[in-house]
Amino acid sequence: MIRFSHVTKEYPRTGVALSNASFRIGKGEFAFLTGPSGAGKSTILKLVYMEERPTSGDVRVGGIQANEIKRRDIPIFRRRLGIVFQDFRLLEDRTAEQNIAFALEVTGSSRDAIPGKVSRLLTQVGLASKGPSYPRELSGGEQQRVAIARALVNDPVLLIADEPTGNLDERAMRGIFQLLRDINASGTAVLMATHNLGLVRRSEFRVIEINRGQIVFDSADSSSPPGGNDPPPTDV
Amino acid sequence: MSLTLREVALGLRRAPLLSVLSVLTIACSLFAFGLFGLVALNVSEALRHVEERVEIRAFLADGTPIEAVSAAVGDIAAFPEVARVDIITPEQALARARKEMGEFQDVFDAAVLPASLEIRLKPGYRDPTTVKAVAERVRTYSFVDDVRYGEEWVQKLYSIRNIAGATGVVLGIAFAGVAVIIIGSTIRMTVLARAREISIMRLVGATDGFVRRPFLIDGFLKGVVGGLIALLLAWIAYTLVNRTLGIQSSFFATHTAVFGVLAGGVIGLLGSALSVGHHLRDV
Ligand SMILES: Nc1ncnc2c1ncn2[C@@H]1O[C@H](COP(=O)(O)OP(=O)(O)OP(=O)(O)O)[C@@H](O)[C@H]1O
Ligand SMILES: [Mg+2]
User: Fold this and answer.
1) Last residue of one domain, picked from the residues B148, B169, B191
2) Domain that holds residue B68
């Protein structure tokens, strides 16, 4: 599903944000990305959804290679992913259902299919009755559910979540995490960056820990002691 | 397509002030452009009018045999530059002078005016160089006493026209440039005002073309509306000038007006294409 081989990302002014990172995430897997602020979590996620390209090394997601994909093909590639953020990124002047419908319209869904699909998605995220509400009329947890519903419109093979619970209280956080688990249980791989170590420790899922741009721990590779680098994977 | 139109409508509704500003700046630029165009149109029309009166007058020596004159008229009329040649007899010259001078006609009673040839040139051959060349050729006939063609006058006419033309081109380019810059930056403001929406569109997988389309339509429509307002303003200015000066100047032909309004649309389209393209490359 995802393969990073010796990936280094250097930003023009701030320098190296990720150095020589290698890891693989399989189909349908759930993995956490943890580490202190500025460690490079969001950078890894941006490389995955190809918002950024690696300075060196190889990023491959669902058979697409970051160095080979043309700029104009990236939107099509993104339709196979779902992406959610800490700040939800909903359009404030549209209702919950319009926000979800928007993603369907933008990606060229047929007109007639949209209302049915929107109401199914709202039900799936537990907001069946909140369709006509505007984001400001929804709690943070509810807004994040709308964002997740929007991320699911194209039945993604991979859901990328950058601190999806960062703005939420404990209860809302648990709800969102449960929702992500359910989504994962139905076959979608989930890659989630989080600061919440409690959440990470309580779950049985894979943990990749990064610090200062280096992968310092990967629970899938028990032989790798914290602080060391993984050997490069051999294939996808 | 209907989604695109809804996006356009939403953009207008969400940033009405910015939209009005864009339309007005487009209208102002095109209005300035249009005013200049009207001046240029009327100046060159007036010049064409005056130009039609460019003529060469060859005064004939007294007692020139009529056969020689007829032969010369035939020759001169065959010059490629010449439209027509008329013989003005002394009697005709006198009658004309009297008519032109009105109350002073008595002064001419005793005057003997020489016979002359009046040579008119074809359009396109009325520039100073050609006029001079033809005049010199006419001067070579032995019975031609003197040739007049208002050298200074012709020269002046042409410099006025050339200055007007050059000023037109320079000002026109300047106005068009200013218009593109203003339109580009107002659309850029619209783009920035909707940057969040654009980033969300890209996030959920909208293609660049899809993101761009509403802005292009927006820019085009604003340009067309601005063009229509400019046309209206130009027409009002034209009517006022005619009324105040009591003249009947010319207004743009329909196809020129349509072209001007469409040019507004194209400028709007270009401005927005530039700023959206710029924005999409940045993000
Ligand atoms: N667009 C960018 N341009 C320049 N530098 C950047 C950019 N994005 C991130 N960085 C730098 O890269 C480093 C890693 O940033 P990143 O956002 O990946 O960290 P993070 O682990 O997501 O942090 P946080 O937990 O605070 O979100 C930081 O030093 C940051 O300053
Ligand atoms: Mg981050």
Assistant:
1) B148
2) 55-148
Residue A107 in any domain: the answer is yes
B163 belongs to a structural domain: yes
pLDDT digits (tens, 9 = 90+) for A173-223: 999 999 999 999 999 999 999 988 888 988 899 999 999 999 999 998 765
CB contact under 8 A, A106 and B205: yes
Q: Whose CA is nearest to atom 16 of ligand 1?
A: A40
Count of domains for chain A = 1
Atom of ligand 1 nearest to the CA of A40: 18
**pTM (2 d.p.):** 0.72
Contact A72 B196 (CB under 8 A): no
Query: What pLDDT digit, counting tens, does each position of B55-78 carry?
Result: 888 888 887 888 888 888 888 888
Q: Give me chain B's average pLDDT, please.
A: 81
Query: Which structure tokens are listed for B159?
Result: 């410099």
| Closest chain B CA to residue A110 | B3
Specify the residue with its C-alpha closest to ligand 1, atom 4: A11
The binding-site residues of ligand 1, defined as CB within 6 angstroms of any ligand atom, are A 11, 13-14, 17, 35, 37-43
Task: Compare all CA atoms of chain A with the CA of B13 and give the residue at the minimum distance.
Answer: A93
Q: Residue B79's domain is classified under what CATH number?
A: 3.30.70.3040
